[in-house]
Amino acid sequence: MIARIDFQSGVPVYLQIVQQVKAAAATGLIRAGDPLPSVRAMAEDLRINRNTVARAYAELESESVIETRQGSGCFLKDGGASPLRKSVRSGRLAEALDAVIIQAHHLQIPDPELQSLLVERLEAFHLRQKDHQAPRD
Q1: What is residue 94's three-state secondary structure?
Q2: Does residue 7 form part of some domain?
Q3: Closest among 36, 25, 41 to 69, alpha carbons compared
Q4: Buried-most residue among 1, 97, 112, 127 (CB within 10 A)?
Q5: How large is the greatest C-alpha to C-alpha distance in the chain, in angstroms?
Q6: What is the dihedral of CA 73, 78, 83, 89, to 10 degrees?
Q7: What SS3 state is found at 9?
Q8: What is the CA radius of gyration of the chain?
Q9: Ramachandran area for residue 30 (φ above 0: left; ψ -120 to 50: alpha; else beta)
Q10: Between the CA of residue 117 and those of 50, 91, 93, what are the distances in Å?
C-alpha cells in the first residue's frame, strides 16, 4: 500500500505515511473496513522505527481516517462525514493551496498555467478513483 518513503524530501516519514494512506483511501486502493498492515509489518517493510508507524496511525486515527479495534488492528473508516467543521477543513486546504501558489510563484508559473495544471490533476485523480472503484473479484 505504501509506495515508498523519500528520506530526502524534508517531509517527516510519519506524515508521508499519513499522506499515502489518505491517497490510497481517496483513490479506492483501500476501502472502508480494509485492514492496514500492522505497525510491526509496516515498519519492517519500510525499514523504519515502529514508533514512526505508530505515530502515523495515531495521526490517522485522530483525523478519523482509521479506527483501531482492540486485538484486531487498524482499519480504514467509512468515508462518511468528516468530524472536522467545514471551516477547519477549508482552512487546512487553504494552507496547502497557499503553499502551492507560493511554489508556483517561485517557479514563475503563470496563473493560467497553474489553473490548467490543477484542472488536469483533478481529472487524473478522478480517473484513478474511477479505476480503483471498479468491483473487486
Answers
A1: helix
A2: no
A3: 36
A4: 1
A5: 53
A6: 110
A7: coil
A8: 17
A9: beta
A10: 37, 22, 17
State which of 76, 105, 122 marks the end of a domain: 76
Can you give the residue range of the structural domain that contains 113?
A: 86-132
Q: Tell me, yes or no, if the pTM score tops 0.70.
A: no
**All three cell numbers of 81:** 462525514
Q: What are the cell numbers at 51?
A: 514508533
Number of neighbouring beta carbons within 10 Å of residue 58: 15
Tens-digit pLDDT profile for the chain (137 aa)? 777 899 999 999 999 999 899 888 877 788 889 999 999 999 999 999 999 999 999 999 998 899 999 999 999 988 655 555 677 778 878 988 999 999 999 999 999 999 999 999 999 988 888 876 666 55
58 and 90 within one domain: no
**DSSP string for residues in 31-83:** -TTPBPPPHHHHHHHHT--HHHHHHHHHHHHHTTSEEEETTTEEEEPP----S
What is d(CA 121, CA 127) in angstroms, rounded to the nearest whole number?
10
Give me the CATH number covering residue 51. Answer: 1.10.10.10
